[in-house]
Amino acid sequence: MNSELLAARKALRAELRSRRRQIPSEVRALAERRIASHIERHFHLHPGQRVALYAPLPHELDVAPLARLARLHGCRIYLPRLTDRRKHRMSFVEAHGPMRANSLGILEPGAARSIAPRRLDLVFLPLVGFDTAGMRLGMGGGYYDRAFAFLRLRTTWHRPKLIGVGFAMQRVAGLARAPHDLHLDAVATEEGVLRCPSG
């Protein structure tokens, strides 16, 4: 990625994070409940389904209402766990037992079995920004891009659906794509579910 694109993304990321921090707590809580409701209507949650969520950083959208919904439907819930910070690698582990903060301050399950990313059914990803084409602007670490790089290489018999989760105000007119970027199948906000071209 060239330095000009990196600088533009850094500036956009800072602006969107600043705007996200200004969302009042009551507006945030209502949005989180609405998003869970939209997801229940648009995605068929069912027993045994393998669903990846995330432990939110401060000011990220909290997926606790979605986690309750997934448990209600008997889904198996997985969370990211860092495996190599230097190489920006992570795995997905079952959300059981005590949680502990990793080196980035993100909560993750302590001791649990991991699952290959390709075996997940639905993956709900945090985002800083998104566009209608399904491009996602994350925090810049590239953890999700690396975990799901196999989706860019070939079509597999089982393809996890990647659903971005965020506030409607995080939508931007367009994001320039880098070769390593993931393409989302859909984005869920308090306004509804946006199906992206690939999804």
Please summarize what this structure is:
By secondary structure, the chain is an alpha/beta fold. It has helices spanning 3-21, 25-42, 64-72, 143-147, 150-153; strands spanning 50-52, 76-84, 89-94, 99-101, 107-109, 114-115, 122-126, 129-130, 136-137, 161-165, 186-189, 192-195. It has a single domain, classed as Rossmann fold, CATH 3.40.50.10420.
3D structure, described in words:
The protein has helices at 3-21, 25-42, 64-72, 143-147, 150-153, and strands spanning 50-52, 76-84, 89-94, 99-101, 107-109, 114-115, 122-126, 129-130, 136-137, 161-165, 186-189, 192-195. The model has no long low-confidence stretch (mean pLDDT 90). The chain has a single domain (3-195), classed as 3-Layer(aba) Sandwich (Rossmann fold), CATH 3.40.50. An 8-stranded mixed β-sheet has the order 6-3-2-1-7-10-11-12. A two-stranded antiparallel sheet has the order 4-5. It has a two-stranded antiparallel ribbon with strand order 8-9. With 199 residues, the chain is an alpha/beta fold. Helices cover 28% and strands 24% of the residues.
